[in-house]
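Subject: Bifunctional nicotinamide-nucleotide adenylyltransferase/Nudix hydroxylase

B.,
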Amino acid sequence: MTADLSPTPAPQLSPTRRAFGVYIGRFEPPHLAHQAVMREALEQVDTLILVIGSARAARTTKNPFTAQEREALIRAMLTEAGVDPARLRFVAVRDHLYDEGRWLAEVRSGVQAHTGGSADVALIGHIKDGSSYYLRSFPDWDFLPTHVISGLSATAVRRALFERRLHDLGGMVPPAVEAFLREFYPSADSAALRAEYEHLLACQAALDPARTPPIAVTAHAAVTRAGRVLLLRRGVHPGQGNLALPGRELLPDETLVACAARAAQLDTGLDVREFMGADATSTGLHAAWLAGQVFDAPDRSPRGRVVAHAFPFNLGSGPLPDLRPGGDAAQALWLPVPEALGSPELFFEDHHAILEELLARA
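Prediction pasted inline below.
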């Protein structure tokens, strides 16, 4: 695929040069269209601040590269194109699927750390669909529309990488990025991602195309005791090796909170009812139900449309019960809460965000 990156006819941009420009993206990985937008922006601003999203997350087929890797790639491809790297600044922000205000605050504070309080800031982008909503979320920053229009997407680049079509990369990414991808390809991380990609393709192929893709409903348990949280390490794809909360799909004859309790027992060998007293099926589970939350970001899972319900079970203090992993769990463990909250890059899908939300409410 060769991208057409020639600017389309458009009104002339204001001749006023800005002190700072902000370009927000995931850049998974950065490609020729990204490079063209950045070079166009640098013709209109003195300093370009690149906000790299989906930072500090486990590698997935959607987000295969770390924020540090993406920053290095952007620096390399722009330097290769003759850009002075002193004109670049970087901000890495995490995804906050269930707290948009927190995401906006992280972007704003990261940018302000580079602008020194200057109000001479412009936001660069192209409003193409609902995914561009964030371009309207910073009303105090002037908007500079890009004139670079291209059908190229990072999704196509990732597919070429996972489908072993390295010969297609040259028409989609700058030379510095292609060199990195070819070096990354034989790595253990790349092999794990290819295996996960093939697993997801097999799951999609198993769906009946004549039917609407099913919506799965799952329930998860966030069990805490003595300052630790109960987690499992996944032993299967997707997310093999990542930490996750115990969870199961809802059965026709059970409540959501009962499903979460069942998941904890099947995945880790821990029966939370034993710690709730004789009324475990009424008052104890009802308290957990009252504190539960729904997590329904449409793209929260690469497996398809999965709506998750999660419930906190606080088992108080005392000795930590022995665990026995089961199901998809390769390991069950008690992790100190601060360590779990401080390690979003170790978690499966949005389970870290779920844990953050539940513990914040608790």
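Residues 6-15 have pLDDT under 50 and may be disordered.

T.
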